[in-house]
Write a structure and sequence with these properties.
4 strands
């Protein structure tokens, strides 16, 4: 076989292989184009806390439960281990909250919990926090 023809064939094979690998990478990539996790991965990386009960500034009580959505499996495992810190952080925040705050400022409560816990995280990030259960007495 001609040496020049052999070089051309090898070059073509390398180009085809690289193009195929690049195509597979983009087809199998976990993240969507907008940076959000697909719903099955989001649920796999989420964690729902136990119910937390504490008193509020206006002498009422709240029973609340959070769901944390993390960006990977290690982050989920870490937030499970940090549940005691989640409880502690919520108790610290709740001393300034009233029953009215739980009627109108849920987004702020979720946001402050996300920020506080992201400062503690070492193996990933908390993407979102949702209040999934709330009872006020």
């Amino acid at each position: 076989m001609n040496r020049k023809l052999f070089t051309i064939l090898i070059t073509l094979l390398v180009i085809i292989t690289l193009a195929g690998a690049a195509t597979l990478y983009f087809l199998l990539k976990e993240d969507n184009a907008d940076g959000e996790l697909p719903i099955d991965k989001a649920l796999e990386y989420s964690y729902t806390t136990e119910e937390i009960k504490t008193d509020l500034k206006d002498n009422s009580y709240v029973l609340i439960q959070f769901q944390f959505f993390t960006d990977n499996k290690k982050a989920r495992e870490e937030i499970v281990q940090r549940e005691f810190q989640v409880k502690n952080e919520f108790i610290k925040q709740s001393i300034h909250l009233t029953e009215d705050d739980f009627q109108s400022n849920l987004n702020e409560i979720e946001s402050s919990m996300k920020e506080a816990m992201n400062q503690e995280m070492k193996n990933g990030e908390i993407l979102d926090v949702f209040i999934v259960n709330k009872v006020i007495q």
